[in-house]
Amino acid sequence: MIIFLLAMLFIILNILDITTTRRVLRNGGYEANPIARLLMRFHLFLPAKIIMVLLILMIMILAEEESGIKTGIICCGIYDFIVWNSYRTIRLQAQD
């Protein structure tokens, strides 16, 4: 049950990452991650993101329960920070 909730949270955070990043870029911001920037240049970001999410979900589900939970917590923590930073950037852009 915990792995399922972490998996759902991970999916939601990645959707928020995509939407907030697009908004930051639309408002004149830039992508700081050079790998993501390269993938965006060749219109491969979304396919790569989907593959990455599916791979991490597979690891979470197929690993032993304790490892799956730890993986989910770490990945959700990382994306929580990324989404928080994007929302912060959107707020700062709105103040300009």
The total tally of domains equals 1
User: What's the helix-strand series?
Assistant: HHHH
Taking pLDDT < 50 over at least 5 consecutive residues as the criterion, the unreliable ranges are none
Major beta-sheet overview:
none
Total DSSP helices: 4
What general form does the structure show?
A: globular
Q: What's the alpha carbon Rg, rounded to whole Å?
A: 15 Å
Structural description of this entry:
This protein is mainly α and 96 residues long. It has one domain (2-95). The chain has four helices and no strands. The longest helix is centred in the C-terminal third of the chain and has 31 residues, at 65-95. The chain is globular, with a radius of gyration of 15 Å. It starts with a helix and ends with a helix.
Name a few traits of the molecule:
85% helix; mainly alpha; globular; 96 residues
